[in-house]
Amino acid sequence: MSFQKVFGTSPDGSWRAPGRVNLIGEHTDYNDGLVLPIALPNRILVTASKRDDGRIAVASSGQRGVIEFAIDDLAPGSVGDWAAYPAGAAWILRESGYPIGGANLLVESDLPSGAGLSSSAALLCATFVALLGLRDLEVDPAEIARLAQKAENQYVGAPVGLMDQMASMCCTEGHALFFDIRAMSTDQIPFDPPADDLALLVVDVKAPHRHVDGEYAARRKSCEQAAAELGVPALRSIAFEDLDDALARLSDDVVRRRVRHVVTEIRRVEDAVALMRAGKLREVGPLFTASHASLRDDFEITVPELDVAVDTALEAGALGARMTGGGFGGCIIALVEASAADAVLSAIEKAFAEHGFSAPSSLAATPSAGASRVS
């Protein structure tokens, strides 16, 4: 799609923001825990030109037509569908006092939507860096991530955490982002599988997301209920060494299992970071597998497609595999010897055909840099 053809003017620049995949640390973010995402090479690209009439026009290569709105008229709910994301970015910038003036925005993507790779956060972050970049406004990447979270929470109405936006803004090439939600601190952890003759496979199992909103809310409520019952601000406050005592104080078995997942998952993130820092990447694999078992048995958010993909990857020689993302669909990741990558993918495809599942798709998960200007 030509920017000139859509808007009748030449662009002033292009900005990109990547999707992400979380290596380990699932459903720990709203428990003040630890997460370890990487940015993907797949991204949302926003090509833009300045306007000075206080209006923003947005178009997408995947949608028909142009949607236009006045910045001063924006309020939560005033723009819907996919355009709510760029509208939300403009609204938050206006509310925060940034003089963005107006813009034409063309959105393009090679990031699969609905796969749990955070295309919504990437769209928001790409819009933020484009609108700010057009006016040569320099804002700290972590602050942009916080603004993007506010836009999704307050304008779009999605109760998301901060991990996706931080990954899209703050990741660096060849590293995983060690993000401590309670401390609001980040650290770059070396993670470069090809340097160790390894590959990280991301496989979209193409399962329809089942009851995601209600189930997500139920998991979060269970964690909050447990924290209140245990008298702590969040489950992060429960030390791994004190887990058995904490579980014994809980009356409900379902809540007990939810707590066990969160506390052990936080420990697995700590162990994974220690191994990566020591250059022992192959030893991270079993932590992935243990994470999946916990998500399947204690947090109960896997579906047959995810379980079959993980089990098949392990049977085909993967060093470790797990579901990643919110669950009930989405993707798995598998850490494999580079020489075995094709065989593992073929085995998963064969297993899916035998089970009558939709054919999966895969992409290369090379740890990539966060949002930036392209041209």
Automatic annotation (TrEMBL):
SUPFAM superfamilies: GHMP Kinase, C-terminal domain, Ribosomal protein S5 domain 2-like. Signal peptide: none annotated. The record marks R20 as: Transition state stabilizer. Pfam families: GalKase_gal_bdg (PF10509), GHMP_kinases_C (PF08544), GHMP_kinases_N (PF00288). Residues 2-50 form the Galactokinase N-terminal domain. It catalyses: alpha-D-galactose + ATP = alpha-D-galactose 1-phosphate + ADP + H(+). Substrate binds at E26, H27, T28, D29, Y216. The active site is at D164 (proton acceptor). Belongs to the GHMP kinase family. GalK subfamily. Catalyzes the transfer of the gamma-phosphate of ATP to D-galactose to form alpha-D-galactose-1-phosphate (Gal-1-P). This is Galactokinase. It comes from Kribbella pratensis. The lineage of its organism: Bacteria, Bacillati, Actinomycetota, Actinomycetes, Propionibacteriales. The gene is galK.
